Amino acid sequence: MVDKRLSSATSGATNMAKKYPIRDDGLTDKQRVFVKIYAENEGRLTPTECARQAGYKEDRANTTASELLNGKRFPRVVEAVIARRAEIEKTHEVKLNKHVQELARLREKSLSEKSYSAAVNAERLRGQAAGLYIDRKEIRTGSIDSMSRDDVLKQLKELGLTGEFKEEGNKTIISVEEKSDSEGPKDITPVESESNKEQEEV
Question: For residue 76, what are the β-bridge partners?
Answer without folding.
Answer: none
